[in-house]
Design a protein that fits this description.
Elements: H1 12-29, H2 33-39, H3 45-53, H4 71-84, H5 86-97, H6 99-106, H7 109-121, E1 126-129, E2 145-149, E3 152-163, E4 170-176, E5 189-194, E6 201-206, E7 217-227, E8 232-233, H8 239-275, E9 277-278, E10 281-282, H9 287-315, H10 321-346, H11 357-365, H12 374-385
Parallel strand pairs: 1-4
Antiparallel strand pairs: 2-3, 3-7, 4-5, 5-8, 6-7, 9-10
Helix pairs in contact: 1-4, 4-5, 4-8, 5-6, 5-8, 8-9, 8-10, 8-11, 9-10, 10-11, 10-12
Bound molecules: flavin-adenine dinucleotide.
Flavin-adenine dinucleotide binds at residues 94, 128-131, 136-137, 161-163, 209, 212, 217, 366, 369-373, 375-376, 379.
């Protein structure tokens, strides 16, 4: 298959990155993905390997040991990783889109010096802690409380659903810095840079998930956790805005992940439909299946085209909140639809673990949930329709 999977014309550099990602996915991910999924095993060596390729600092400048690439190139690589292993893709997406970008955008030079280069090299994995057990879509209702303690802070609360929280060396955590007596809503939230060595920092319950099983999802328990004053990110009271602005970009990564999952299911279905014979002919000769495959191809191509156009708009410095939500909505619902159709193309064999499509189906579901559910994406898009 040629390197291009889309209408987007690629530069030589982009083709080279795609080829590197594809080769890495074929040798380091595809042979293990089913086993890691079955054992819910996170493979820690992947962090150093992806770091060695530069894939954990794709959007960071070279001054921080990053590759200094544009958003489209990053998303092209992410799609290739997701085709082989959606769990590895979410690691790459969270790390590149959220904690590294937050530090790059709002960190002090000292915070950047300490964390960014090790993150780019794969020596420190990043995580993002916004959600809590009672605060998901309504993220501004979070309750983890930070109170001043001398020149630092003490944080108490439970952050939920933290992707790679088990292995993260730096976690960007949103907590309340207003007081229970004078609540300030979203303006009472600040962002803290946590590391697991802080006293009172703990990893709690690990979730037993439907899909994305090789990506550990845990609670982070902060029990009077002492955080030095120089770990506040940016300005006090701006943490919710930082989180929302970062998620605008994070959603492009999740869209690329979803397109990768959909492509994996589509390619498996195309191959299977050519091999499997019923009624004396390959099932691909039945028009009902041809139409299914045609619809799968068309939906993947349209989701990818919107994503690539939005990546270009982001790199031109244009606001992308509305289009970012559209990308995430369209790509995740495409992934869920395409993987459902792929199971159907495989018939009974789509329902068993001997073939990979049931994993794609399970992995696709979460793309409709995290970094804002499909309902929340529709809320964002509808709100933007009536803005100003
Ligand atoms: C595998 C996994 C990994 C995750 N990783 C992270 C992470 O690294 N960091 C992090 O901070 N979070 C993470 N999350 C959390 C994720 O972002 C939340 O699960 C998500 O935002 C939804 O929140 P909730 O689960 O509390 O659902 P709820 O908010 O309780 O929603 C339940 C249902 O109500 C709907 N709903 C809620 N409000 C509205 C509304 N206003 N209009 C219409 N419908 C609405 C929702 O769409 C949904 O269908 C992860 C979640 C999962 C499953």
């Amino acid at each position: 298959m040629p390197v291009e999977t889309s209408l987007t014309p690629l530069t030589d550099e982009q083709r080279a990155i795609v080829e590197t990602a594809r080769a890495f996915a074929a040798t380091e991910l595809a042979p293990h993905a089913a086993d890691w999924d079955a054992r819910a095993h996170f493979e820690p060596s992947l962090v150093a390997k992806l770091g060695g390729l530069g894939f954990l600092g794709m959007l960071l400048p070279e001054a921080h040991d990053g590759l200094g690439l544009d958003t489209l190139t990053y998303l092209l690589a992410l799609e290739e990783i997701a085709v082989a292993d959606a769990s590895a893709a979410v690691m790459m997406s969270v790390h590149n889109s959220l904690p590294t970008q937050m530090l790059l955008r709002w960190g002090t030079p000292e915070q950047q010096r300490r964390f960014l280069a090790p993150m780019a090299r794969g020596e420190l994995l990043g995580a993002f802690c916004l959600s809590e057990p009672d605060s998901g879509s309504d993220a501004a209702s979070l309750r983890t409380q930070a109170v001043r303690d001398g020149d630092g802070w003490r944080l108490t609360g439970t952050k939920a659903w933290v992707t790679q929280g088990t292995h993260a060396g730096v976690l960007l955590c949103m907590a309340r810095t207003d007081t229970p007596e004078a609540r300030r809503g979203a303006k009472g939230i600040s962002t803290f840079i946590l590391t697991p060595d802080l006293p009172g920092f703990g990893v709690g319950k690990k979730e037993d998930k439907l899909g994305l099983r090789a990506s550990p999802t845990v609670q982070i328990v902060l029990d009077d956790c002492r955080v030095p004053g120089d770990r506040l990110l940016g300005q006090e009271g701006q943490g919710f805005i930082y989180a929302m602005q970062s998620l605008d970009h994070g959603r492009l990564g999740i869209a690329a992940q979803a397109i990768g999952i959909a492509r994996a299911a589509f390619e498996a279905a195309v191959a299977y439909a050519a091999e499997r014979r019923q009624f004396g002919q390959p099932i691909r000769d039945f028009q009902a299946l041809q139409f299914k495959l045609a619809d799968m191809a068309a939906r993947i191509a349209s989701a990818r085209a919107l994503l690539h156009a939005t990546a270009a708009a982001k790199d031109r410095g244009e606001p992308i909140t509305r289009f970012g939500s559209m990308c995430k909505l369209l790509a995740s619902e495409t992934a869920m639809w395409v993987t459902t159709q792929a199971v159907q193309v495989f018939g009974g064999y789509g329902y068993v673990k001997e073939y990979p499509v049931e994993r794609y189906f399970r992995d696709a579901k979460v793309t409709e949930i995290y970094e804002g559910t499909s309902e929340v994406q529709r809320v964002v898009i509808a709100r933007e329709l009536y803005a100003d």
